[in-house]
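Retry 2 of 3 after timeout on previous attempt. Resubmitting structure tokens to design endpoint.
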């Protein structure tokens, strides 16, 4: 029986995601000091989210939401509310599958609310 090692499994996963239309970025290239850095050197490797990519994606798949709503939704995604790891995992999974409830004040002072999608299931 052939067994896959971690590197082989990673290559299979990357190939499959590429076939689905995802773009692969090699970690050392996007690390600070890399050829196309997307990480802040001050944060080192402690930040696991590429914030600029997240903001661009959320704006792209939610074009009608104002920047205040986008900022609030990203804050909710990145800052767990519970001290329980299990509860935070459940809440995060729900935000990924059902979206993030956000609200904001409109120009005339009226309160708006909407669900911000976190994943583009269409494309």
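Retry 2 succeeded. Sequence:
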């Amino acid at each position: 029986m052939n067994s896959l090692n971690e590197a082989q499994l990673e290559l299979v996963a990357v190939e499959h995601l590429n076939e689905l239309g995802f773009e692969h970025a090699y970690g050392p290239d996007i690390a600070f000091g890399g050829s196309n850095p997307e990480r802040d050197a001050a944060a080192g490797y402690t930040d696991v989210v590429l914030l600029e990519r997240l903001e661009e994606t959320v704006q792209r798949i939610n074009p009608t939401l104002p920047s205040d709503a986008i900022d609030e939704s990203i804050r909710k995604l990145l800052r767990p509310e519970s001290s329980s790891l299990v509860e935070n995992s459940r809440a995060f999974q729900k935000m990924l599958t059902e979206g993030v409830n956000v609200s904001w004040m409109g120009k005339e002072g009226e309160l708006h609310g909407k669900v911000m999608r976190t994943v583009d299931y269409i494309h």
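Attempt log closed. The chain has two domains: 1-48, 49-123.
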